[in-house]
Amino acid sequence: MEIHTNIPLKNFTTMKIGGNARFMTDVYSKEEVAEICQNAKSKSLPIFILGGGSNVIATDKGFNGIIVRMRISGFSVINDSLNSTTIKLGGGENWDAIVKRTVDMNLSGIEAMSAIPGTAGASPVQNVGAYGQEIADTLQSLEAYDTKIDKFITMQNSDCGFSYRDSIFRGEAMGRYIITSITIKLSKNQPQPPFYDALQKYLDDNNIKIFTSKIIRNSIIEIRKNKLPDPKILPNTGSFFKNAIIESWQLNDLKKINPDIPTYDMGNGHYKIPTGWLIEQIGLKGKVLHGMRVHDKNALVLINESAKSYKDLADARDEIIGKIRDTFRIQIQQEPLEI
Ligand SMILES: Cc1cc2nc3c(=O)[nH]c(=O)nc-3n(C[C@H](O)[C@H](O)[C@H](O)COP(=O)(O)OP(=O)(O)OC[C@H]3O[C@@H](n4cnc5c(N)ncnc54)[C@H](O)[C@@H]3O)c2cc1C
Q1: Does domain 244-338 correspond to CATH entry 3.40.50.150?
Q2: 123 lines ligand 1 (CB under 6 A)
Q3: Which of its termini does the chain have fewer beta carbons within 10 Å around, N or C?
Q4: What is the pTM for the complete model shown?
Q5: What is the pLDDT of residues 29-76, one digit of tens each?
Q6: What is the CATH number that goes with domain 75-187?
Q7: Smallest Cα–Cα separation from 23: which of 56, 67, 57?
């Protein structure tokens, strides 16, 4: 296992910001995961697991420990029944390549999550999701190295504490588990309506009336092309803010002043408000703050246009959060985690 020193984290994160990692290494097997964790522990060095770096912001101080890049591969069908196929995936597999491969097998369950950057192993961390699907819907179990007890463990879906863009892996157990594989169960039935509003609109606009996972994947790729900047060209982390979740009394208050506020009823007395809409209402869509541009096609996305440091990004973020709080009395949250 090669260990590199003083590596600029901006080269390994899609926001292209931040200081250096003291050490960095790639792991290709479970044995290497165990080895690097025990090595780090013996030297009292913290570790941080990195996938594709598409949902992580590196701060200016960098990381005084070992960045472990998850590179474990694997795609194996472990069960095939009349209605479903269960597949075990290595934590380092590219997410979109997996979606494509399962769609090519005529399976459905993750096709609406097409074109999301990153790795399979990171998908449970923020319960990755898009256009009405999330990994919690199909994930059966996962294997992880538990750095607390120095053992590999298996976790079932119900152990992961999944909720909207959240799980124990970015909450109470942040940094504890290194996910080496995930097992997902996909359906042999083709996707059925009702579809997510924006997807349904695209299908209607294009007169698409037959739904296969391949047709849904291609539709999603087209929709996303117009809404999300390619991080290889314009550095970003996709949605920079989570959508806001509010209670019904807050919604009633807000509706008095903003009767047109778009809402999604989550069915438990809570409502999702598109944060992009809130940012648009305060006039920041397309604007540049401290070198960070609020994307003109999707105000949830911040693009690093000319930010010189993490501080610039933090200043832009705090300005947006403050304005939303002052205008709507809603506290919005950053989606990407920080190193
Ligand atoms: C253009 C663009 C569009 C996006 N669209 C979406 C979207 O539609 N929906 C969505 O949910 N997200 C979206 N994202 C965010 C991101 O792609 C996902 O969150 C993705 O799952 C991150 O994967 P990654 O491998 O890049 O993780 P990283 O950014 O490398 O890591 C993210 C977090 O997960 C942890 N982690 C990574 N791998 C492991 C592992 N094996 N074990 C334990 N912890 C791990 C890291 O420590 C870190 O805390 C988008 C990002 C971009 C740039």
Answers
A1: no
A2: yes
A3: N
A4: 0.94
A5: 999 999 999 999 999 999 999 999 999 999 999 999 999 999 999 999
A6: 3.30.465.10
A7: 67
